[in-house]
Amino acid sequence: MQNLKCRCIIKSIGKLQKECVYRNVKIGAKLPWLLDQGFLVCFDVLRKLDELGVFRLLGEDKTLEFVQWLCEYTEEEYDTNPGEILYGLGAKLKICYMCLQRKDNVDQDSMCKECSDKYAPPRRK
Predict the structure, then answer these.
(1) Can you give 78-90 as a three-state secondary structure string?
(2) What values do phi and psi take at 20, rounded to 5?
(3) Taken in order 43, 83, 18, 91, is the CA torsion positive or negative?
(4) Residue 63: Cβ-neighbour burial (10 angstroms; 0-12, 13-18, 19+)
(5) What's the whole-model pTM score?
(6) pLDDT 10s digits, 62-86
(7) What are the extents of the domains in the chain?
(8) Which domain of life is it from (predicted)?
(9) Which residue, among 89, 107, 2, 79, has the nearest Cα to 47 in the 3D structure?
(10) Taking 80 as the threshold, does the pLDDT of residue 25 lie above it?
């Protein structure tokens, strides 16, 4: 995991937040011990497929089918988390990590509005 870098960043005056970056992709404040090898392999594979334009060639339906299979298989076999696997890519592919469905309203956290309203904690004002 030599490509995993964690650092503290200043989010606002007087507040520090831990930020993890894996291969130049910010993966939020996840702690390194939560990042298992299964997640990292899937993370790399999906980004490489995207970089090579494979998802454009597959089209939306086959991309969704592949991502659903990958998330479900690795979650069952290797205890990975679809949210970790799709982090930073769910919005681009328009696939929600909670319901694993294609939605037009997937946010940067890879969650559709419906799942966000249902599962996400309320935001403080």
Answers:
(1) HCCCHHHHHCCCH
(2) -105, 140
(3) positive
(4) buried
(5) 0.67
(6) 999 999 999 999 888 878 889 888 9
(7) 1-34, 36-125
(8) Bacteria
(9) 89
(10) no
